[in-house]
Amino acid sequence: MDYIAKTTTIDKEATGCVIVGIFKPKRLSDSAKKLDKLYHGIISKICQRGAMNGSLGRVTTLYNPSRSKHDCIVLVGCGKQDDFTISAFQRALSAAAIEVNKSNVSSAINCLIELPVKDADLLGKVQASVLSIENSIYRYSETKPKAARNKSRLKKMKFLAHTRDDLTDIHEGQEFGQAIASGMNLAKELGNLPGNICTPTYLAEQAKTLAKGNRKIRVTVVEEAQMKKLGMGALLSVSNGSVEPAKLVSIEYNGDEPGERPIVLVGKGITFDTGGISIKPGASMDEMKFDMCGAASVLGTMKACSELDLPLNVVGVIACAENMPGGRATKPGDVVTTMSGQTVEILNTDAEGRLVLCDALTYIDKFKPEAVIDIATLTGACVVALGHIPSGLMSNDDELAKELIAAGQLAGDRTWQLPLWDDYQSSLDSNFADIANIGGRWGGTITAACFLARFTKKYRWAHLDIAGVAWHSSGKQKGATGRPVPLLTEYLLHQAYEF
Ligand code: BES
Ligand code: MN
Ligand code: ZN
């Protein structure tokens, strides 16, 4: 997709399709007014008749038979102007993006960035626009027949600027948006690939591909033999039942001075989660190919970082394994020793994410992290608690939590904090080891984080449970979302440029 920014107004600019906003009740935006004048009041007529009332996310397309200047006009409802926050803006954008794709044009002008959005500046509005258009044109195709690959025709998106200063902001918003989108696309593609292709070995190869031809990225892979030497009994216990060897992959991005402490991202990379001996029920088990979406988001974010050439040191670590039952599989009641020295009684082999993560979180101490964020499709309980809107956030550092919440808000990739109080810790007590790998029935998202907290005492750490947001479960939408690449990249942008 090409993005173009120009200082002009809509009545002077010819294109395939124009996207303009309508607020509730039936209030035309500036560009909508200009077009209304140009086309003899057609837009106000449509509003009067009630075909467009300005309700948030509602869309109507006018096709212009005379083909003068604009092939079609997409009217987008934006809700009440007073309620027009970045999340409302995003909803309007994605409704518009879907509609523009339907009209099958090859170029469009996005006039929505002229609208006043409560908590976003021009740069943020452009970034969000690029993200939503890129989201709407992504198609999974890798394992589909050629004939079924329906590519979007949309090739060009224009933004109109009032002033030259605006142009600078628009260019920057485009650049940020495109880098984030390219990271999201990688995360989606890896998430969508089936478990028989996207194995731990495959993910390690993908990491190496990122490093190819990039002097700022270095990739190292810890193999099972070395994991044994390092004492990673928890990570190894997960891949025991599988013929696919586990891989612990580090991607070091050096954008800053070598001595500067890095931000470390740690992703759960279970390439398929059957549950192991504590096997899952059959219904929807295919969705457990998405259990590596945390790792995919780390790879995606590393990609975005390097495309943005961020002046920051970042290390991405992905803990990859396949969780299978089998003759050598870990059994409920087995006790393993983690790299930290703490022993774990594995009461449920389906609580495997925390087992791969705990050794990864101990391992990464060697990078002397400035802050650590782990990203994991960790608990079904998180989906029960928060649904599919925000990810769950837990942290041992309130400042870090605040920064992540703010980044998520700005990037339209929200997260919601849950308490990580010590009061929950006792649910992990075990009679046979230092700690059990499951808590009781309640507060499963928090007790999972409490487990991880035992391994993250040496640094500032936050945990993102993305079980509810990493993929859509059904219908045409079924597939990976690429979240939380926007949140993570936004956070890193702020760390790099201190804004
Ligand atoms: N990968 C799952 C979590 C999950 C389940 C994410 C469904 C999204 C949808 C994780 O490994 C798991 O199985 N967690 C268990 C933990 C339990 C055994 C304590 C769960 O949530 O049921
Ligand atoms: Mn599991
Ligand atoms: Zn899992």
Could you characterize what this model shows?
With 499 residues, this protein is α/β, with parallel strands linked by helices. The chain folds into 2 domains: 2-155, 3-Layer(aba) Sandwich (Leucine Aminopeptidase, subunit E, domain 1); 189-497, Aminopeptidase. Helices cover 35% and strands 23% of the residues. The chain has helices spanning 30-38, 42-48, 86-102, 122-137, 164-192, 200-211, 224-230, 233-239, 293-308, 353-363, 380-386, 398-411, 444-453, 485-497, and strands at 2-7, 15-24, 27-28, 59-63, 70-80, 107-110, 156-161, 217-222, 247-254, 263-273, 313-323, 334-337, 343-346, 371-376, 391-395, 415-417, 435-436, 461-465, 471-472, 479-480. The strands form 4 sheets. An 8-stranded mixed sheet has the order 8-9-11-10-14-18-15-16, sandwiched between helices. Helix 6 (200-211) runs parallel beside helix 9 and helix 8 (233-239) packs antiparallel against helix 10. The radius of gyration is 24 Å and the shape is elongated. The two termini are 28 Å apart. The relative contact order is 0.11. Zinc ion binds next to strand 10. Residues 270, 273, 291, 352-353 line the site of zinc ion.
Short description:
By secondary structure, the chain is an alpha/beta fold. The protein has helices at residues 30-38, 42-48, 86-102, 122-137, 164-192, 200-211, 224-230, 233-239, 293-308, 353-363, 380-386, 398-411, 444-453, 485-497, and strands spanning 2-7, 15-24, 27-28, 59-63, 70-80, 107-110, 156-161, 217-222, 247-254, 263-273, 313-323, 334-337, 343-346, 371-376, 391-395, 415-417, 435-436, 461-465, 471-472, 479-480.
